[in-house]
Specification:
Length: 327
Amino acid sequence: MNANQNKFIGVHLCLSAARNGFSITIVFSTRIGIHTFIAGSLEKAALRAAELGANTFQIFSASPRMWRARAPDPEQIRLFRKARERFDLRPLAIHVNYLINLASVDETVRAKSILAFRGELERAALIGAEYLVLHPGNCKGQSVEEGITAFALGLKEAAAGFEAGNRKKPLTVLLENTAGSGCSLGSRLEELQSIRELARDLTDLAVGFCLDTCHLLAAGFDVATQAGLETTIRSIEESIGFTQVRLIHANDSKTPLGSRVDRHAHIGAGHIGLAGFRRILTHPKLRRKAFILETPIDQPGDDRKNLDTLKSLATLPLTKASRVMKP
C-alpha cells in the first residue's frame, strides 16, 4: 500500500478511456473518509482507514458507552501519529462519548458529563486530533434557552485550565447538529450559533460546527433535492455561516424528511439518495469540506462500499462540472 494511493486532493482532472476518445472528470472533494475503531490499538484504526482508501477519518478515543476511560499509551500515540503522517490522514476527528450531556439538569449526569468531556479534551490533545465532535445534549426539564446556557456553562467548567499543548493548530470542538427528537438541542441552526457565541465568551476553546446530512434531513432540511439543498445552503449562510463548518458527517437517512428520527443508512439506500449526495459533495459551498462516513456495517465490506460510493459521487463529467465551478 502506497501513501500516495490515499491522496484525493484538490480539484483535478481525471482522464478515462471512452469509445470515441477520452472523457474528462472533475474531482471536487479533497477529504473523504470514514469512522474506524480503536479496538486493538490506535494505530490499527489509522491503518484501517488507509486500507479502505480514506484520507481523513474519525474515531472514539475510548469506549463510547462508558464513563471511565484511561489515557492512551504513549507508544500507541507515537505509532498512530506515524501512520497518520505516512498515509496523509487528515484531519482527524474524535467523536465524544455518547453518554455526555452537558445540558442535563440532573446533578449526577451533569457532573459525570463534565468530567468525561474534560477527559475527551485531554485525550484528543494527546492523540493530536484536529476536531472533537460533540452533540449539544438534551434539555429535558428546562427551556431551550436554559439548556443552551447549561451546556455552555458545562463546557466552561470542563475546559477550565485546559491547555491544548504545543500544537500548530489548536484542537477545535465541533458542535454537531441533531435530528431533533425529544428535547435534544441542535436541530435548529440558530441553537448551534447561540451555543458557539456563549462558548466564545465563556471559554478559550476554538468552537466550530459539524453538519450531519442524515440529521439535517430528519430535522426538516430537504438536502435530498436540488431546490431543498439550495434553501438549506442559504439557511446555513444566514445562521452559522460556512467558515466555521469544518466537517460533514455523510450519512443517508432511513427515515424521511422531517421525521425527527436519527437512523443512518448506506449511501444511496436512504431518503437522500445517490443524486442527493452527488449534489452535496460537488456543491461550491461544500466541496472543500472534509466528509466522514458513519454508515452502518451490516455486512462485511459495507464500509469499503460506502466509501467507494461517496468518492465516486464526488466527481462530475466536465460538461456538468462547468456549471458548478464558480466558488
